[in-house]
Amino acid sequence: MGNRVSVEGCGRMSSLSVASRSLRLIALAALAAALTACGGGGGGGDDGGNPPPPPERGTVTATVLDDTFSTPISGATVTVTIGTTTLDETTGADGTATVNDVPVGSVTATASAPGFLTSAAQGKTVTANGTTDFDFTLERAPAEAAGGVLTVLPVGSLDPNGRTFTFTMRVVIVDENFEHVPGLGDSNFSLAACTPVTVGSSLPECVRGTQLANDHAYIVNTTPPGVLQQDPAGPPRPYAATMLLDQSGSIRGTDPTDARIFSTKVFLQGLGTSDRALLAAFAEGTEGNTIAQIPEEPVTFYPCSAAPCPSPPQFTGTGSGLFESVDSLAATEGGGTPMYDALVIAINATRDNAPTGISDQRLAVVMFSDGLDTTCGFAACVPIRQGVIDLAQPDDPNIRDVDLFTIGLSSGVDSASLAELAIKGNGTYLFAENANQLIPIYGSLGALLSDSLPTYEMTWTVDAQADNVFLNGRSVIGRLTVDTGTAEPFELRFIAPIFEL
Prior knowledge:
This protein is of the alpha+beta class. The protein has helices at 24-37, 251-254, 259-269, 323-328, 339-353, 378-392, 415-424, 438-443, 445-449, and strands spanning 3-9, 12-18, 57-66, 77-82, 85-90, 96-103, 105-112, 122-126, 131-138, 146-154, 164-174, 189-191, 207-208, 218-220, 226-231, 239-246, 276-282, 286-287, 290-291, 299-302, 362-369, 403-409, 429-432, 455-464, 475-482, 490-497. It folds into three domains: 3-37; 57-138, Sandwich (Immunoglobulin-like); 148-154 and 163-497, Rossmann fold (3-Layer(aba) Sandwich).
């Protein structure tokens, strides 16, 4: 009988019959082929055909704080670099980010956030299944010079033809370190001529009257300004101020770095011994695709994490105690802008809850906004705005005045209305062209509230190109450009009421 070689594999029996010795080599070759086809034999390397183990990996965690207050920065980007590979993760509300599946070995990490300077790179070693911690402290990007308009008043009698109007303006100018900029002269200030250019605009651009048809062009016939002088600062007086922050949906676009939050903390940190502050935010209903997010509409007084909020609102002399509440505003943007409703509530809350027994105390509401009131149109807002001013500055000597300070951000803000509220409300209108200017504005706010910041006073004359433009009851809207010589020129927006002295 011939020899028989059997091979088990591939799930069945294979047989090879070998009739003679001379065929054994052929049978052995067939056997090797069969073993190879079934995955047998010595192929597949030292692991017996199993896949190689995965590379060893670890975890990186990073905490990112702001340099000024040592508070967490939400939304910062942590970047981990291994050779030519980078891994990114974003910090949460606690300022912490976790980067998983980082290959073991030497890595570098950096942290960055909008409005802050990027950190220096840090190097560490990631170990298998271990956690490597990084700590970053970021500095704010440099602030910019800014300023505000305190008063604008007519000079002399009005032109009977309504073609010429002369007014004085008192302004404050501060640098990026919140300090008064001294030594400015005529050449540092320029007033722009104005021509309405927006077709179908819902707001006047040069002259405000009772109707949009009252808007007309004007030119400036005093260049440089006349009677420019610097007024020294007076002794500081204590204040109790309500900080009223616009939390409508548009804030996400105009203040993406949350500069208003950082700036508010700068102000709160600088409260004097006798100064008091109350924190409030406003938004209402639905505007576009955004819904109001603050706990109580239209105004929430803080501390408050959920409605109903504690009542009555409490002023504090320890501003840092409000930092957590201020930081929470970064996640509560949405809804419309009930500006005048919010001011009424804030004025009453300030008058009713300000501490007593502090001599010469000034009461104030400081409102920040980036847009227009969304509850009334141009004509309907006129009497409402005047009603707010009358509520803040009543004729009754037995009712304490509440001075109105307004801060406008972005080109879309209703500067004329905010300026009117401040100028008629015995306060200051501060305009920021960009979010970086909010820092010196809020940084100098304490000195403004306490009447201890030097000012510049100047006189301007403007000419209309038609009769009956500058009439009693109307206002001139303008833009003053300031060039300190050491920073980029910037604008101060103002409104000059026209009335008989």
